Each structure stands twice: as structure tokens, then as C-alpha cells.
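Quick one:
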Amino acid sequence: MAQLAKVDPKEVIRREDYLREHQRPRDMKDPFTWPWPYRAAGTAVALCIGASHMHNSWLRKPWHYALYARMGMTVAAGFIAFTLGNLRVNNYQSREAVTEHYKELHSNDFEAVNDIYGRPFANVLLPWYPKRTQYRRFDE
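Output:
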């Protein structure tokens, strides 16, 4: 059987930290580095502006058609999306805190999960013997 390639623990931590949120430096040109509330608000505002433009183009209206109402609705959509982004961040933080607290209380239940190299499939999965339709007399 092939040997597992062992990775340095510092390299494992570096790889996992790179995938976690807020580990990459923020860049205004890259919205994936923005915090969630700003990302949600930016997406909502961009969708509202795009929908307004498509609506004006489809109905052959000038660009300033219902401008104040659309600006108000765009601001409202951005505010609602910002609020939902804050709710998402709060929900994820509380869920993570509950999970970490449970792992501290019951640390012996998570010893098998902390092994990054895992276990072979034979130790995890039960054997599966499919029933073949051509061998009906053995089904009983």
C-alpha cells in the first residue's frame, strides 16, 4: 500500500488560514475580500442599477425615467442587503462559538476528527453486497 505524503503542520495551518474569511488582504477591486455586509449591499445595488438600465432599455425610456423613485429603491435595497449581511455574520459567529464551546466540553468525541490524514475507507464504511436480480432464490 502506498505511503501517505506527510505535510508539515505549519503548511497545513497556512493552507487552512488562507481559505478562512478575512485572511486575504482587502482590495477594492476584488469584492470577494470585502466583509459580508458590504459585499451583499454592493451586489444588491449593482443588481438594482442593472435592472433599472435593462428596464429602461426594454421599454425605450430615457435614462432619467423615474430616477428619484429608483434611487430610493436602490438605497433601500442596499440597506436591506447590508442588514441581511450583518445578520449572516452574526449567525455564523454565534454558530461557530457554539460549536467551539461544544468541542471544548466534549473534546474526547473529536479525537478522530483532528487527524488530518484520516482513516482508510475500510474502517469507516460498512461493506456493501448488492442484491442481483438474476439470483432471486438467494434473496430470502
